[in-house]
Every structure is written in structure tokens, then in C-alpha cells.
Design a protein that fits this description.
Layout: H1 2-21, H2 38-42, H3 49-62, H4 64-71, H5 80-94, H6 96-105, H7 109-117, H8 122-134, H9 136-139, H10 147-159
């Protein structure tokens, strides 16, 4: 059993090393319908049903699609919006009072950080900060406002 596990680990390491050394070029042909992972990279460029089955089986056997998606490897791009959204939620939650002060005056380090995390283009940042100041009463509508309320109001403001 140990030998089997060791052999599987060696195959996985070899496959990942090979896959990372290969340029990733995908086209829109139907043979790329097996998802992402080591199998897709190993069988890249091969035509036919058998290569698709082998790629899908390899991807499923090694269970590397979830890893690839979360790490941004093996042909997958890590979803930056998810990471950025969580960072933004944590930042706003931890800095509610200071952020409120910055929004009230329309500028400041904390507001600038939120602007960056919201991916507001540089040419629109000043006008966004001004609109945030003008809408302070809406953003911080009550004493019981939560960080999610503030974030939702700022997102709405950024899209208007």
C-alpha cells in the first residue's frame, strides 16, 4: 500500500512538473471540454474522444481542479474578485469609524484604500470620493449600520 501511495505521489509530482514547464495555449475547439488540470495539460493538442476521456480521468483521479482554481495554476486563473472582496469586507469591518471620518471629508488614507480595493479607475477616484462625501448620510445611515451596509452603499455609489 505504501508503494502504491509513493508511486501515485511520484506520478503526481512528475505530471505537475511537466505541466508547469509546458506553455499553456488553449483554443476554442471542443476537445477542451474536460476542464482544467494536469490531464488537460498532458493531453493538450491531442484529438479524439480517447484523449478527452484520458484527460478527464487524469484530472478526476488527481483531484487537482479545485487546487488549480484556488491557486491559479494548471491553466486556471485565480478569481481575484473573491480575494479582493474578502479583503475589502475585512478592511471595512475593522475600520468603520476611521473610514467614516475619511468619507465625511471626502479624502484620507482609509477611503483611498477602499477606492483601490473597489478597483475604481484612477481618473474616477476623485469624483467617487466627492460623491461619497455628498452621500455620507446614506452610507452611514444609522448608528446600527454594519460594514456590509457600508460596503453595499459604496459599491452602489461606484457603479452609478
Amino acid at each position: 500500500m505504501k508503494r502504491l501511495a509513493l508511486a501515485m505521489a511520484a506520478i503526481l509530482v512528475t505530471a505537475v512538473t511537466y505541466a508547469q514547464s509546458q506553455p499553456i495555449v488553449y483554443d476554442a475547439t471542443p476537445r477542451n471540454n474536460v476542464g482544467i488540470g494536469v490531464g488537460t495539460i498532458i493531453f493538450n493538442g491531442q484529438e479524439g474522444l480517447l484523449s478527452q476521456i484520458c484527460a478527464a480521468t487524469t484530472n478526476g483521479t488527481f483531484g487537482n481542479q479545485t487546487f488549480a482554481i484556488s491557486s491559479g495554476t494548471l491553466g486556471a486563473e485565480q478569481p481575484s474578485t473573491l480575494v479582493r472582496t474578502e479583503t475589502l469586507k475585512i478592511f471595512v469591518a475593522n475600520n468603520m469609524d476611521t473610514l467614516a471620518q475619511d468619507i465625511a471629508v471626502g479624502e484620507g488614507e482609509y477611503l483611498s484604500t477602499v477606492v483601490e480595493l473597489l478597483d475604481i479607475p484612477a481618473e474616477n477616484q476623485a469624483s467617487f470620493c466627492q460623491r461619497a462625501r455628498e452621500n455620507f448620510a446614506t452610507i452611514y445611515g444609522s448608528e446600527k449600520v454594519t460594514h456590509l451596509d457600508v460596503l453595499s452603499a459604496l459599491r452602489d455609489l461606484s457603479q452609478s
